[in-house]
Design brief:
Blueprint: E1 8-12, H1 23-35, E2 40-44, E3 62-65, E4 68-71, H2 73-83, H3 96-119, H4 129-143, H5 147-152, H6 154-164, H7 166-172, H8 185-200, H9 211-225
Parallel strand pairs: 1-2
Antiparallel strand pairs: 1-3, 3-4
Helix pairs in contact: 1-2, 1-8, 3-6, 3-8
Length: 242
C-alpha cells in the first residue's frame, strides 16, 4: 500500500485542543512519523463516544484509513506495519515484533498504572469541563482512591515509579534507545507513558542525570521534534484537582 494523506487519527485532547496527552495516542503519532505517513489528527474528548461509534467501543486512538476504522494502539501499529510495507519498519527484523509486544504490554500493565498514581490527580485541571465528572468517577473507581488521597500519597508513588525504572535505566545506560541504535515501536510504546506525564502533570518523574531522562530528551527530539512540540504542563500547579 502506498502512502495515503487521507489517514485520520482521533487523538485525546484537553480543554485546549492543542493539549494532546494520551500515552496510547502518542505511540501512534510517533509510529506514523516513523513511517513517514501524513495524518490529520482530530481532537477527541472522553465524552465524545459517538464520534468513534463505528469501532464498537469508546476509546482512542482510532485510526481511519479509507473505509477502515482501527482501534487499540497495538492493533494500529500492526496494521501500519502490515499495510504500509514500503515504509520503514516499526519493529525491525526477526523477533522485533514479539519483543515490541512485550514492551507494549509492560508499559500498559506495569509502568502506566504506576505513573497514574503520580499524575492522575492533576489531569482534571487540563480537561474540558464536559469530561471532568466522567474522568474523576471512572479513575477513582479504577484506582480505588479519591484524587485527594492519591495526591497525598504522591511522594511514595513517585519513589515507586523511580524504582520501577531500574531495568530501563541499565538498558539505556548501555545503548541510546530501547530498540538499539535508533528508535522503533518499542521506544514509542514506553515513551508514550513519559509524554503522558509531561503533557498532563507538572511533576518531574525523573531526576537529573538519569539515563532514562537522557533517552526521553532524545525521544522528544526524534521525528523533527514531534513530541517536543507538545507543550508541557507548567511546574508549580500540583494539586489542581484537590
Amino acid at each position: 500500500m502506498t502512502q495515503d494523506s487521507s489517514l485520520r487519527l482521533f487523538d485525546l485532547a484537553g480543554a485546549d485542543e492543542q493539549r494532546r496527552f494520551s500515552p496510547y495516542c502518542w505511540r501512534i503519532r510517533l509510529a506514523l512519523a516513523h513511517k513517514g505517513l501524513p495524518v490529520r489528527t482530530i481532537a477527541w474528548r472522553f465524552t465524545d463516544k459517538q464520534a468513534i461509534a463505528a469501532t464498537g467501543q469508546g476509546k482512542v486512538p482510532v485510526l481511519v484509513d479509507g473505509e477502515r476504522w482501527i482501534h487499540d494502539s497495538w492493533a494500529i501499529a500492526e496494521y501500519l506495519e502490515d499495510s504500509y510495507t514500503d515504509t520503514p519498519s516499526l519493529f525491525g527484523p526477526g523477533a522485533g515484533r514479539a519483543l515490541a509486544r512485550f514492551l507494549n504490554q509492560w508499559a500498559a500493565e506495569t509502568l502506566q498504572p504506576a505513573i497514574a498514581r503520580v499524575v492522575v490527580p492533576d489531569i482534571p485541571s487540563i480537561l474540558h469541563p464536559k469530561d471532568q465528572d466522567y474522568f474523576r468517577s471512572s479513575r477513582e473507581a479504577a484506582l480505588g482512591l479519591s484524587f485527594e488521597a492519591l495526591a497525598a500519597q504522591r511522594p511514595q508513588a513517585l519513589d515507586n515509579v523511580r524504582r520501577l525504572l531500574a531495568p530501563l535505566r541499565s538498558t539505556l545506560g548501555a545503548q541510546p534507545y530501547l530498540a538499539g541504535a535508533r528508535p522503533l515501536y518499542a521506544d514509542h510504546a514506553v515513551f508514550g507513558a513519559f509524554q503522558w506525564a509531561r503533557t498532563a502533570s507538572p511533576v518531574a518523574l525523573l531526576e537529573p542525570g538519569d539515563p532514562v531522562e537522557a533517552w526521553v530528551e532524545r525521544m522528544l527530539d526524534a521525528y523533527g521534534g514531534l513530541a517536543r512540540s507538545a507543550a508541557p504542563v507548567a511546574q508549580g500547579t500540583e494539586g489542581a484537582a484537590s
